[in-house]
User: What shape does this take?
Amino acid sequence: MKPYAVIGAGPMGLCSVRNLAKHGIPCVGFEIHSDVGGLWDIDSPTSTMYESAHLISSKRMTEFAEFPMGDEVALFPHHSELKAYFRAYAREFDLYRHYEFDTEVVHCAREGDDWRITTRCKGEEQTRVFGGLLIANGTLHHPNKPQLPGEFAGELLHSSDYRDPAIFEGKRVLLVGCGNSGADIAVDAAHRAKSVDISLRRGYYFLPKFIGGKATDAVGGKIKLPRFIQQKISAALSKFMLGSPEQYGLPKPDYKMFESHPVINSLILHHIGHGDIKARKDIAAVDGHRVTFTDGRIGEYDMILLATGYKLHYPFIDRAHLNWESYAPRLYLNVFHPEYDNLFLMGMVEAAGLGWEGRNRQAEMVALYIRQLADGAESARKLKAIKRSQAGRRADGGMNYLNLERMAYYVHKDTYLKALAGHTEDLLKGYEFADTDHFVASAAAATR
Assistant: This one.
């Protein structure tokens, strides 16, 4: 079997290499930085991390099942703890030997049924042919920068540019958008800026990180409830614990809980309630340092920071190869190309509570598919037919997700994991594992 190429050494790239190696599939990983960690290594040239960033979900709901985080690691770890975790994971499963570091993937093109991949290392380019390609370079690198309605005379930044709250010192700051990063940054700014306003176009649901001393995402996690009941309970809990967004002068969400990603941050509401952060409507016009909002109010600002999210970005491969439609590629289970049997878009999936273990199960399924397809197994031929006929079907579990770019690859966790488990169980039939002492536990987890 020809080696497979894996792009990226963040959590998705690492577990992709882990599973390929586990199933005896030769592979080479490419990473633009000098070490593993991806987004979680703040020193990486492609990282959009900031100094105060912590994991949004709790460690036990996020970690790889076969490699738990230590008890000494915080429940919501700092990015530096996660960088150390991924390096330890790479050492534990001997992944470093598969990677070429300080290496940028420049271009990927078809050569017959294979992939011709050009890389650049220290200014020198090299082109090689691989039997397959797993793209795992992440989804939070390329900033979405909407055009302001006018010219701003102050400092205009995107959240991807943000590192340290010292930049806010003594300034009049306007944050635009309120995802999880935007909320974190607004709280940082409240401690340093002269004033902080936050402009929102739509409403958000907010959830605290802790309930009764336990991580919110772990409360009731083992009890499977119908989707609409989960939505109602979570919305009621949010209102009971934090109040409604309207009570803080924020827009009322015009959708149900989890139809867009909730903000896991109650500190921003604390600061809004104390007047440290002021809520503003959508921006109507910008002229110099002056910003006019849709309700007619006017503010003067030294800095505007756009917390407006990210776009999917795969600059090294033609979109035509990715079956791209509208905001995102249309792939079966967000990973399988309908026609190419050796191209996989790893980690282009988001869901509340999916964690890295959910992505590991995706990588497990892909590795088994590659192995079984090469061996001519009926289970792989069956999945091959399914991915061709159902590439446009979304694993949304009936959720009416908002038609937003950042929600284009969102799935319903239970629906998605059930599909992964079903295919994994089928692919495991009659298969003797190529490796390992670590496999038994993860295989059992994948088929639950």
User: Anything to note?
Assistant: The chain is about 25% helix and 20% strand.
